[in-house]
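Training component of the fellowship. As part of building independent skills, the fellow (R.M.) carried out the full modelling exercise for a liganded target. The chosen ligand was adenosine-5'-diphosphate. The inputs are recorded below so that the supervisory panel can assess the work.
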Amino acid sequence: MKFFKSVKFRLTVWYLIVMSILLFVFAALSYFTLYHNLYNNLDDNLKNRFIKLRSLLQDVIDNADTDIDIDRERELGEVILVYYPKGLLWKGFGPFIDTSDITPMVQEAAQGAPFFFDITTTYGQEIRFYAAPVIVGESSFVLLVGRYFGEIKAILNRLRTTFILSGLVMIVLAGVGGLFLADRALRPVDRITRTAQKISERNLSHRIEVHSEDELGRLSHTLNQMIARLEDAFRRQQQFTADASHELRTPLSVIQAEATLALGKERKEKEYREALETISQEASYMSSIIDKLLFLARSDIRQEQYSFEEVNLRELIMDLATSIEALAQEKGLEFEMGIVEDLVVRGDQDRLKQLFFNILENAIKYTLQGKVSISVVRKDEEAIIAIVDTGVGIPPQDLPHVFERFYRVDKTRSREEGGTGLGLAIAQEIAEAHGGKIEVESEVNEGSTFSVVLPVYPVAPRDSGKRKSKRKRSSAEDI
Ligand code: ADP
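Fellow's submitted model of the complex:
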């Protein structure tokens, strides 16, 4: 049954087991302490009485006093017996008892060592005796002082019954109380479960109510943060899908319109050529978006393969410089190489080229006049590759978003320049795969500075272990 498998039930059972053990130990200790105290008291009392009665007995025998003295001295519930050493009763005081079991004890006591013993009378009463020899002049006797101890037994029996009954009641109450407490303590878990059941990928807006700051409160808080992250990831995923569809629909509409128009009626060869050129341009734009999307998708599921090796940054930048210089010249811009230190990083040559190409290409795209420069310097254990332009700049409110997929400050300008809104997202993905990051500072109409920070070799890239190192060739212009 569900209840018997619940934590609530198990907690209560454990609680009851511990409680029962504690109760048992407490009861046993109390019982045995009382037991020993009562019997020790009885024995002490018998011994003291023996000493007193012995001297009285000596006086009685010595002075031939009457027995009345001993009988008068006898306390309530006390039995005093005086025997000859052979086991023959000389005198007895107190209630009559069947003495047949006593004879061997008397003979043993006559040997010299005093001792205690218990006997049961024919009426079932139990008496504890202290027996020891008494020498009076030439004669010797054995004096037995005894007491009924049925009362002690009755006290102990009553205590035992009380312990058993109250123990049972306490266990039942503890069971009910334990169940109630466990139920209260675990109620937040039920709440968490109910909320979790309501959550699906379509509905991530539910949150667990947090009522306390204890362990369960912290758990709820952590789960809420996790759900919020999931919600954010799903939202971005949906946004990304919507953006990607939208981006691909535009060139597709152009292609469709051009083809429909061209096929509408008989046209001149020049017009067909123009239509096909437009179609080809839009198709290659689409193909470039799809390549980039594929790269990002593979990166997301950690399937993008990187081939890590020692990469000399100066050589890599020099390699890129030729194509960048050509692009800059085409736009009438100056391309300047600042300080380029001879630094080595561990990375994938082609991916790193692609990273710098994306940022440099942007710098040229978004600079109308002035210059674009690049520098490589070392700061502590990091190589800082700074790409500075004197371009249009990025407004402060857009700055935190420029690395998001499909985010563009000026959509029309980006589209005119052949931008897809994925260049920086890819650059950031590559930097992170190398254990690095990209920082950006910008001022509108003043220009922007993109700083790529990479760990200098021999410091291994933090993320390198996660990537597969099978070589896969691709050029910067591939994406
Ligand atoms: P795009 O293909 O549109 O260039 P990116 O991801 O490379 O996409 O860049 C995202 C946006 O960031 C660009 O659309 C542009 O608005 C802005 N941006 C990137 N680099 C620069 C720069 N150097 N100067 C000004 N704006 C920039």
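The panel noted the following from the submitted structure. The chain has three domains: 7-153, 215-300, 309-466. Residues 7-153 form a domain with the Beta-Lactamase fold (CATH 3.30.450.20).
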